[in-house]
Amino acid sequence: MLGIHDKRRAVLILIAWFVGAAVPIHLVLLSFGYAQYFKQESLGPKVIITAHDFAKYYIPIVYVPSMIALIGIVLYCRKKHPDLFRRIIVGFGFGAVCTIALDSFRQMGVIHGWLPGDTPVMFGKMATGSQNFSVYYPVGLLVHFLNGAGFGLFYAFVWGKRGTYKAAVFWATCWLLIVELGMMTGPPMGPMVGMFGSRFAWPQFFLLTFVAHVAFGIPLGMLVQHFLRDEDRGWLLKFLRGPGR
After folding, report:
1. Counting CB atoms within 10 angstroms of each CB, which of 76, 85, 152, 161 has the fewest?
2. What is the DSSP letter of 232?
3. DSSP of 87-144
4. Alpha helix locations (H) across the chain?
């Protein structure tokens, strides 16, 4: 049985996991899912406009408060729950950093026309509803990197520190390939370009995003493995139970 202190810590972990991973990731999924599945807009600029109809409520009501809550949890846990503090900082921080590795391949896709659009442009217009580059592009970049940070936090919380660097790279890459599968089949890309890009630039679209996600997963696994401590070993259940359990 968990004591009161441990139960509070476990609740904090679950809240941090939700606000730091689920909320930023779901901004894109729910906004475009609303446009593509609920409103039946799968192609063209109207998809982004319709996605904004959902995002304009989700961002101020859910997204922004969640980011504030995550910051509050980080500040609160720095001394009270240092293991939770480490997993948030390491996972969220290096998830954002590793997005740069993904972007090195994503830009190749934009340049060669293997992607249907530039991700920060799409995210920025979805989030802001603006056609002004100086407004939508910085916001789109922020959403893009926070999305990557959310994937990093998810990995650090679920897998933690592995036994070896090889194992860490393996599991982080597996996680990012699950993300790749979701991207290839779900919103926004699935309905927009077909399963695995079958209605767009096949096979370049699939191969590019596949390599990009592997390029994200490898450094994520190595960095999380390096910066977490030995006491951070174990899957999510052990993390919830607390050190020594």
Report:
1. 76
2. G
3. HHHHHHHHHHHHHHHHHHHHHHHHHHT-SSS-HHHHHHHHHH----HHHHHHHHHHHH
4. 4-17, 23-33, 45-58, 64-80, 82-112, 119-128, 133-159, 165-185, 189-193, 204-227, 236-241
The predicted-structure confidence for 159-177, as pLDDT tens digits, reads as follows: 999 999 999 999 999 999 9
φ/ψ (deg, to 5) at 161: -80, 130
What is the pTM for the complete model shown? 0.92
The span from the CA of 79 to the CA of 144, in Å, is: 30
CB atoms within 10 A of CB 12: 17
CB-based contact 185:155 (threshold 8 Å): no
Fill in the amino acid letter for 157. F
Tokens of 187: 């919103």
Q: What is the DSSP code (8-state) at residue 43?
A: S
